[in-house]
Each structure stands twice: as C-alpha cells, then as structure tokens.
Amino acid sequence: MTTDEKLQILTDAAKYDVACTSSGVTRGGKKGSIGSASPAGCCHSFAADGRCVTLLKVLMSNACSYECAYCVNRRSNDVPRATFSPRELADLTIEFYRRNYIEGLFVSSAVIGNADYTTERMIECLRILREEYRFRGYIHAKAIPGTDEALLTRLGYLADRMSVNIELPSENSLKLLAPDKTKTAILSPMGQLKEQIKENREDLVLYRSTPSFVPAGQSTQMIIGATPETDFQILNLAEGLYKKYDLKRVFFSAYIPVVEGRNLPSLLTKPPLLREHRLYQADWLLRFYGFRASELLDEEHQSFNPYVDPKCTWALNHPDFFPVEINRADYEALLRVPGIGVKSAQRIIVARRVGSLDFEDMKKLGVVMKRAQFFITCRGRTLEGLSLRREYVMRSLMSVDTAKQLEMPEMEQLSLFNGEEYTKCLTGQI
Fold first, then answer.
1. CA 200 centroid distance within chain
2. Which residue ranges does the chain devote to CATH 3.20.20.70?
3. 3-287 topology per CATH
4. Radius of gyration of the chain (CA)
C-alpha cells in the first residue's frame, strides 16, 4: 500500500475526533530548527495575513484490537486497514509543512495490540519530529487509556497538548459499548497529566531551562446521542472534569451512526447536531460567564430547549433577576443578560464612567439588542413600545423560520387601546 493510500484511509478515519482547537502555546522559530507555534494557531482558522492555519489530522493506524460498538474502526468492522510507521508519518508531516500545507500535527491512533505498544510508536514519531527534524510547530497527541505512566510522561514532553477521550458520559454506557475500556483507565491518565502539568509549571518558574510538559494543557471528548444520558448529566460531568482535572476543553461529538449494533441507535438516526450545539453554548457559559451546571438544568428540566439558546432559557426562567439596569449593574450581572457578551460587558463598564448610557448606545458597544432589549433598562426605563409578554419574548429569541414552524404568535406593539377603541379613535368617535 502506498503512502498516499494510507493517508487517504487514516485521515478519513480521524474525522470523527473533533478535539482540534487553538494551540495555546508560544514557541518561536530557532536557527537550525523547523517551524514555530503561536497561541492563535488552530485547525481551520486564519492568520492575520489571510493564510489558512491547519493541522494534519491523522491516525497512526486504524487496525484496532478493541471492540467499541460505536467506532467505525472496531476490530469486527469490515473496513480498509492501514498503519503508518513512525518514520512515514514524521516524514509526511515535515513534507507537508515545508509545502506550507499545514502548521502542525494532530495525531491519534487505534489500539495496535495494546496501549503501551501503540504509545511507543507515537512517541517514536514525535521523537523523530522534535529531535531529528528539530520541528518546533504545534503537536496534539491523543493518549491511549491504560498506557504506562512512564510512557505517558515521555509523550507529554514531546507534545504541546494531550487529550484522553472519556468517550461516553457514564460508566454504565462505557461498559455496554466499550468493554475494553474502563473508567479508571481513562481518568487515571487525566489525573497524572494534571499533576505533572502543575509540577512542570512550578519548575519553569524556578528553572528556565526546564523542558515543558504539555504546555497547552489537556482536553477530552465525549460522544452525544449514542446512549440515553441527558443534557443535565452530561453538563454536570463536564463541569466536574473542568474542576477536578483542569481541562482546557471538553468536546462534544454528536453520534454519527456508521455501524450497526443492538445497543446502538438505528443507522437511520440523524446526528443530534442541534443538541451538540446547545451543549457547546452551555459549556461556554460555564467557562466564561460564571454559570454553574445546576443553574442551567436540574432534575426536573434535564434537557435544553432546542429552539432557544441556554442563556436565553435561563433568563426566561428567572424573571426575578431582570430587568438589569445598564448604568448600575456589576460586571457579573451584565454577563447574565442575553445579548451581552464578555467584550460588550467590558465596554459597558468602561463607557458608563464617561456618561450615562441609553438604548442608542448599546448597539455601538456590541450588544445584540434583539435579545437584550427584553432584559435591560437604561436610566430606569424599558425600551418604548416593547411587549414583555412571555410568548412574544420567546418568539423574538427564536429564528424567524423556527417561530413560523412552531406557529408562535406574531409580535405586536403595545397600545393604550384595544382593537375596538383603536378603530373608534381613528374614525374620530372618541
């Protein structure tokens, strides 16, 4: 099999892994070396000069010895198999880099034999890149659950970011669909990486020559929709992972039916892409807006409204918190308002030091008034002529197509008269 044929098979097999983000690491160029890394560099993003900044996203092998029911590469599935040698993949990465096709590598692998053997091959590939080619670009490596601690440490000194996929949101689902993996085998490497990253950062403060260990941190991914866990369970798990393991990101991957199985959804099942989107929005609220998982969902409400984003849903369910006065509210209160983001909240705080703000000023500061208008006051006033009836607010927060599909009532202006009185007024009878 040629290198091109292997590349076609193994890049296609890697498309189900969504954990490709900004590099989060700075490493400048150096004489005699190849490449550099920037915190802004990421998969499918663009540099300031218009160049597409990309990663070569590939598996070292898809010849897996595991039998994960949801995975296209499971050992019982009849698919073309291919395996890169460490040298082949390293050479390919450098060749693509020199042609300006890529700016880094995202490498994972099916389990070839066992976790340790697979990790040894990944280490050899990264060693060739770092030591022989002196490659200083960004590398993201997937850790294989069950890998020996010493091997995991060696891999961590060669990669910029590492991730251990939690795969499924509960231990029961893991036992059902991925019997070769265990909760302990997944969480133990996460704990090891967290402690070693912390120790390495402390050493770097004292000794500048200390080599960096996973400088861009660690992440994980879980599959959504293959098992019956609710959004409430998934979001609480994500929050717990952030707190316990200091993860940079938790990624959600909508389950795509690619194989048949008695414990899997039908092949005709559509991937829950909107649900995945809502979970990402909620994840953003956890990480940047100060929300807790228990505020967004609870035992009685375990799923997100598919038609309205989680922040708007929270606002509609907490009328006691609103309206928020733009000229007096603190930063944390402003962040709770739909339509106000981190940057616009910061701009409001700065702008109101100069003078009192009104509704006309909000758009200039980046506030999305279509959402925010229902939840704010300026100088003690609500927006003139605005209806605050819940059904009209809900319609405004939805897309036009969604509102029509659900047959939501049309928006209307507030009036001092009812319909009959309005007609009499126009005809001069009152």
1. 26
2. 3-287
3. TIM Barrel (3.20.20)
4. 26
**Size of the chain in residues:** 430
DSSP category for residue 36:
-
In this prediction the pTM is 0.84
Dist. CA 88–CA 96, nearest whole Å = 12
Digit-coded pLDDT (tens) for 382-423: 998 888 888 888 888 876 556 555 555 554 444 444 445 434
Q: Which residues contact 371 (CB under 8 A, 6 or more apart)?
A: 312, 338, 339, 396, 397
Q: Output b/e per residue, 377-387; b: 16+ Cβ within 10 A.
A: bbeeeeeeeeb
Characterize 303-337 residue by residue with b for buried, 16 or more Cβ atoms within 10 angstroms of its Cβ, and e for exposed: ebbebbbbbbbbbbeeeeebbbebbebeeebbbbb
> Structure tokens of 168?
């499924």
Going from the C-alpha of 76 to that of each of 50, 59, 143, 223, the distances in angstroms are 44, 18, 23, 20
Please name the residue that has the structure tokens 């930063």.
Answer: 331
Closest CA to 420 of 409, 405, 430: 430
